[in-house]
Amino acid sequence: MPAALAVFKRRLPDLPLVVWLILLTLALGLLSGDGARSVIAGFNAGWGAAVGEFALILLPAFTLAAAIERLSIRAPPAAATGLAPFAGAAMVCPDTAFAALSSTLSSTGVRGRLSIAFGTYAGFKLLPPAGPLIIATSLGAAVDGALLMIGAAVFVAAWLTGIVFARAVTPTVAQAHEKRKNHSREWRRLLPLALLPGLLVAGVAAGEVNAWLDFATDPKGALLLTAALMLTMLRRGERRACVETGLKQTAALLLLIGAASAFGAVLTDTFAPHAVFAARGGWFTLFALSALAALFKLLQGSSMATFAVAGPLAAPLAAAGGIPPAFAVWAVCLGSFVAVLPNDSFYWLTRRHALPGLREARALAILAGGSTAQAVAGLAVLSVCYALAR
After folding, report:
1. Can you tell me the distance from the alpha carbon of 109 to that of 73, in angstroms, rounded to the nearest whole number?
2. Could you say which of 16, 136, 197, 298 has the lowest number of CB atoms within 10 Å?
3. At 365, is the secondary structure helix, strand, or coil?
4. How far apart are CA 57 and CA 88, in angstroms?
5. Distance (Å, rounded) from C-alpha 289 to C-alpha 310?
């Protein structure tokens, strides 16, 4: 982060992001000349947008993550890299997924840890139920065949780029022999996670059949069923604890999403950016959405906070720019890749376990460079898909 920006942030009052969003929303409304009733009405209307849908996504997602964490599943080293993105998505947290999978390697070895780190990061950003489902809900995009096909191409590009980058820089990192550990087959308890993509694909292929099947193959219903199935693998006394963990995490994020939605609604009414985006067209909108998400990621550090804030702000811009919702979703998700920096907890976890003994500047270059390379590769594929779709 630039020194000037760091100084600027230190001089600001130390307030949570959600408080800043609320204050800025009220200030924008008042500065525009609206009366108190109008400002409050606009705040209420913006706050309520899609919050119910987010609750149906976040609660089962965080409950599912808590259940997986309690199972303490460990994959054998040979499978850890392959499981990394799916663990990152299922746990809705790259930190937890990386901690679980990297523990399959010896405490001194580093080979493979960086691949696992970039894999969990890619999965969290680009696989449901994490980034894509949250951003799609913000943008009102349907999880259809187009979104899934584009997402598959973008994800593969970003994931493989992370693996190649990790292998390219691994020789510069002090390595030690990795001892193989004997693992039970407990990692196979992750197999119920296959229910989620299976239901999503079935929903796209089958279309509407009846109300029950339609809900089960919708992302919200599929997520609820997957979380419920995973809970059955825990002891009875542990299930409530997982649900309560999910409730606490959901409540905090819903507050942030509500504030961001209200801020986005008032900002759009005040400055009316529709004309600018409509005039400049789809390519400008595509890269502007990525830049918006990247800006919030650089400022905030937290990927989940970036999803919560960037999504509601991107919705009116994507509509004004006239790009298909599927492309807008992936543009925001890829922008949030930039970059793994010290203001992100994932940086310190990966720094400690995957890059021990390196100088800080070198570690920063590897983690920020690798995540940015993943974003660039994904954006390149997204751009090709967009050019073909025009």
Report:
1. 20
2. 16
3. helix
4. 16
5. 8
